[in-house]
Amino acid sequence: MEQWTFPPRFDASYLPATQSRYWFPRRETMPAAERDAAILERLQQLTRYAWDTSPFYRRKWDDAGFHPDHLRSLEDFETKVPAISKKDLRDAQSRVPPFGDYLCVPDADVHHIHGTSGTTGRPTAFAIGRADWDAIANAHARIMWGMGIRPGDIVFIAAIFSLYMGSWGALGGAERLRAKAFPFGAGAPGMTARAAMWLDLAKPSALYATPSFALHLAEVARAEGYDPRTFGLKTMFFSGEPGASVPGVRDRIIDAYGAHVVDCGSMAEMTPFMHVSGSAQTDGMLCWQDIVYTEVCDPQTFQRVPYGQRGTPVYTHLERTSQPMIRLASGDLTLWEYGPTPCGRTYPRLPQGIFGRIDDMFTVRGENVYPSEVDAVLNQLTGYGGEHRIVITREGAMDELVIRIEIAVADDAGGADARAALRDEAGRRLQKMLGLRSKIEVVAPGTFPRTDFKARRVIDDREVFREMMRR
């Protein structure tokens, strides 16, 4: 396997032939059984490394009765190594601030510090070593190559440059790819209109953002007098929220820009976060198993589920030395499958991407509802204006689901008849998708604010929720 060492070492001058579909042809197309054997060897190295350098893992594995010497098969790894959670990481950083006792390199080797915002509790600090920063850039360059991005292409990065890892990961990959990196950013007042101006001026080949921002940008661009299709974008790749694999959302982006849409991204803790990513030929997300070993597991037992079933991704770094995550349970929901892929890569695939966090699921009258399912229905409706809100409320003893939908500007000219048609069609399709009746309210264009980052569209207005917030 090309450049397959631990700790990882990469040839910084290496680039494939421009016409090659693959960055590392052997690693990406080898028989799965051969790759699994190499992954097992890497896991043996990794667990021994973590045992020797991390009190966190040594304590966790001692409690579970696991020792690296016990690891003789992938089944051993999946059944004997305990899963860890974000709470475990926060607790470790509380005990040993700021990076926790799962930092496996000397403090002097920390090169970048990122983290969570901490708006809902203690923030989590991500300490990334100098060698790991290079490994992340190499991994992202390799995956972006698979998306069809090439040296010399302009990559327009329309995401917030802050603690958020997405923008920095895209920047590192673009730079290693020898692309023209355009770290435009997002979030400042008036910046979206300026993004449209720069896109029209620079005509980049690729754009990175969240799906919500791409749709918002298209609206603003049209208001500023631009046609987003004239920007000339060929590849648009997204992370941060579900959307790029949601048919309605993906189709609206394609229709607006005329570009190929690629879904990518897992968790900031798992950077290189693009390790689940589509390619120029394959939709959904491929699990690039030789970068991060991905299992899709039962959310209760964290045991692997068969292909074709739903579960939560559990991730293990294979090229990180500073804060390696070993069986980190994501808390997300997905479905995986294995089989031939259009691009020829022999990786498992998440054909519908990541549906969203299991925590985001809510229950109304006994039915489990994911916000991404509502997004998928509404984004395929003629007359949908681009934004909505999902309100969970209570009338008497029964929960009610109220969907407030913006009508498109052009359709709003049709008056009451157009609003009634949109309301009836939305109600019919949502009932078919969700298995329950919703109350649909059609509202005027521009009712809801747009976002430069991740969209938040669910409002829980039930009395229990209000009482909890009061307490």
Helix content: 25-40%
Shape: globular
How confident is the prediction overall: mean pLDDT?
Answer: 92
Tally of alpha and pi helices: 14
Could you tell me the number of beta strands? 21
Taken as a percent bin, the fraction of beta residues is 15-25%
Could you describe the largest sheet, including whether it forms a barrel? 5 strands, parallel
- First and last CA, distance: 57 Å
Low-confidence stretches: none
Structural class based on helices, strands and sheet pairing: alpha/beta
Rg on CA atoms, Å: 23 Å
Strand order of the largest sheet: 4-3-5-6-7
Describe the SSE topology:
Blueprint: H1 25-29, H2 32-53, H3 55-64, H4 74-80, H5 86-95, E1 110-115, E2 125-129, H6 130-147, E3 154-157, H7 165-176, E4 180-182, H8 191-202, E5 206-209, H9 211-223, E6 235-238, H10 247-257, E7 260-263, E8 276-277, E9 285-287, E10 292-297, E11 310-317, E12 326-329, E13 332-335, E14 349-350, E15 354-357, E16 362-364, E17 367-369, H11 371-378, E18 384-395, E19 398-407, H12 409-412, H13 415-434, E20 439-443, E21 458-460, H14 463-470
Parallel strand pairs: 3-4, 3-5, 5-6, 6-7, 18-21, 19-20
Antiparallel strand pairs: 1-2, 8-9, 9-14, 10-11, 11-12, 11-13, 13-15, 16-17, 18-19
Helix pairs in contact: 6-7, 8-9, 9-10, 11-13
